[in-house]
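wait is this the right file?? whatever heres the structure
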């Protein structure tokens, strides 16, 4: 069983469903609303755990009504929360509009995630004990860099999902072993990704590709009836991390299958499939 340390964001997703997403200045009528625990860090942690890894998360929630619920969801999914701190103020939120095709528009407010400004000795120990340290960019970049340096110092692989895409210090890219990007991010970060040994590019319903020391691989994706794409990329990344030790080809198959299954259910963490569900789809 792989051991994963996730250093990342934890949000409450405020999800509105509507026939189509509004244009600038337009009001449209929605058809449903729900609050769903999410955040790229939490989603990826739960996805890795459900795919079969042992997972700990380093992150922050607020003292608002969402904080306790977000912590409970992680604990209920058997994600270790020793590195989860509570800070004064609001938890992170993501306002998500999902149209009838399943495509979404997202606005993220960092909240407590922005207060994850440094790592404790206990956080560093979690990273040092892990096989892979998994991080994203919904927390301060300086903290991501600190976590990456800690991982590199202790022989822990660094998997970066550079989303939302932004300019990053060269020393962070130098510490990255594996990067997971979508096609837009791949184009935007082309020069930086050339320094990363292993790069996986997601292509929505068309699957994903890999390039690395073992050459190039492609997975065509899994045909499903798409309901909501929210969290599909995070599910891909978590499942990939959980099975990376089995080699890129196997990890890619698990990731593509998990990501596809996640689009068949509304919500982020609520849609993440179990290892048994992924295995059934792989066998079918």
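ok assuming it is, sequence goes like this
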């Amino acid at each position: 069983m792989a051991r994963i340390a996730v250093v990342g964001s934890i949000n409450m997703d405020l999800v509105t469903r509507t026939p189509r997403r509004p244009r600038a200045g337009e009001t449209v009528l929605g058809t449903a609303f729900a609050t769903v625990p999410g955040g790229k860090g939490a989603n990826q942690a739960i996805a890795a755990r459900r795919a079969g890894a042992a997972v700990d998360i380093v992150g922050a929630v607020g003292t608002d009504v969402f904080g306790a619920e977000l912590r409970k969801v992680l604990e209920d999914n058997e994600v270790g929360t020793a590195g989860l701190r509570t800070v004064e103020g609001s938890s992170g939120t993501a306002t998500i509009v999902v149209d009838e095709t399943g495509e979404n528009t997202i606005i993220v407010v960092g909240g407590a995630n922005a207060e994850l400004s440094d790592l404790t000795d206990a956080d560093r120990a979690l990273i040092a004990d892990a096989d892979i340290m998994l991080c994203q960019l919904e927390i301060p970049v300086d903290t991501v860099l600190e976590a990456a340096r800690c991982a590199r110092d202790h022989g822990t692989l660094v998997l970066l999902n550079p989303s939302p895409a932004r300019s990053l210090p060269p020393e962070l890219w130098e510490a990255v072993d594996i990067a997971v990007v979508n096609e837009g991010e791949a184009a935007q970060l082309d020069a930086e990704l050339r320094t990363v040994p292993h790069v996986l590019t997601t292509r929505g319903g068309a699957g994903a590709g890999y390039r690395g020391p073992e050459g190039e691989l492609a997975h065509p994706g899994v045909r499903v009836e798409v309901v909501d794409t929210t969290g599909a990329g995070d599910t891909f990344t978590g499942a990939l991390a959980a099975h990376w030790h089995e080699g890129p080809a196997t990890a890619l198959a698990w990731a593509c299958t998990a990501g596809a299954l996640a689009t068949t259910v509304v919500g982020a963490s609520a849609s993440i499939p179990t290892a048994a569900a992924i295995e059934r789809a792989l066998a079918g």
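The chain has a mean pLDDT of 94. so i think its the right one actually
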